[in-house]
Design a protein that fits this description.
Elements (H helix, E strand, L loop, with lengths): L6 H11 L7 H5 L2 H21 L2 H24 L5 H15 L1 H4 L2 H4 L3 H19 L15 H14 L8 H16 L3 H21 L4 H25 L9 H13 L4
């Protein structure tokens, strides 16, 4: 195989892997649909690497994610649809279109941060309208987004056309209302519905407080994990297990972990 550098090296390897005669049997069996689980997994591994702060790991995981893009491009190219270069060119043109404050006229470049944000939302809405005659603000929101991210996205889109409270105070009242409705619900299906409404309202509060709800919940998960592992380790030193301890004992160790500032 010829020696290439940069993206040419990766696309060259991809072409070899998909060679009908001498390629890799596993790679030859793949399709857009079969690659989806790997793409999702690689995306989360990029997130983990970034959160670790390990630049070598970030480089490695970004390469794995880039390979997913190259793989999809190779499949599309084989079907006569588009190539990796087509993807890159389309994305570059889209970014230029969305950034007139960078690539446009002098007047377009002389905008405040608020004007740039409003312009961005207007351009995105125009793009959505062009894709779909209905022009719904919810067009192009992926149906498979994790529920918390999807809730935040739906709320942000509705807010972009004025359907939003101007401040956080009414959101607090909405959360209290939803908590009461959870308490009042009796049938399981109704309880599930009301809990969903409560979670949606909490995501809305996060948005009003300019907090990424997914990141906030991830931090809460890690904090809970760290504190509970402290409980397990303390009990292990006493030749005990969590399942053999009383709730009162576990709660006392939990408070100990909190006082120790475990995150």
């Amino acid at each position: 195989m010829n020696e290439f550098k940069g993206i040419g090296a990766l696309t060259g390897v991809m072409q070899r892997l998909r060679d009908p005669d001498n390629g890799c049997p596993w790679d030859l069996k793949q399709s857009f649909e079969s690659l989806l689980p790997y793409t999702i997994e690689e995306t989360y591994e990029v997130v983990d690497a970034i959160q670790s702060g390990d630049m070598a790991a970030i480089k490695d995981e970004l390469g794995d994610l880039l390979f997913q893009v190259v793989f999809y491009a190779q499949l599309a190219n084989e079907q006569g649809e588009f190539s990796f270069d087509d993807i890159a060119e389309h994305t570059a043109n889209k970014l230029i279109h969305r950034h007139p404050h960078v690539f446009g006229t002098d007047a377009e470049r002389n905008l405040s941060d608020a004007e740039i944000k409003a312009q961005w939302e207007q351009i995105k809405q125009q793009e959505r309208t062009k894709k779909n005659a209905r022009g719904s603000v919810f067009d192009d929101i992926p149906s498979q987004l994790p529920s918390i991210l999807k809730a935040a996205k739906l709320q942000k889109r509705a807010s972009s056309v004025g359907f939003d409270w101007p401040e956080a105070e009414p959101v607090y009242a909405k959360i209290e209302e939803e908590i009461q409705e959870v308490k009042d619900a009796t049938e399981q299906e109704h309880i599930e519905e009301e809990v969903g409404d409560l979670l949606f309202a909490v995501v809305n509060l996060a948005r009003h407080k300019q907090v990424n709800p997914e990141r906030a919940l991830q931090r809460a998960n890690e904090k809970f994990k760290s504190r509970f592992q402290h409980i397990e380790q303390t009990l292990s030193q006493q030749n005990k297990q969590a399942g053999d301890s009383s709730l009162q004992e576990l709660e006392a160790l939990w408070q100990q972990a909190k006082k120790a500032g475990l995150l």
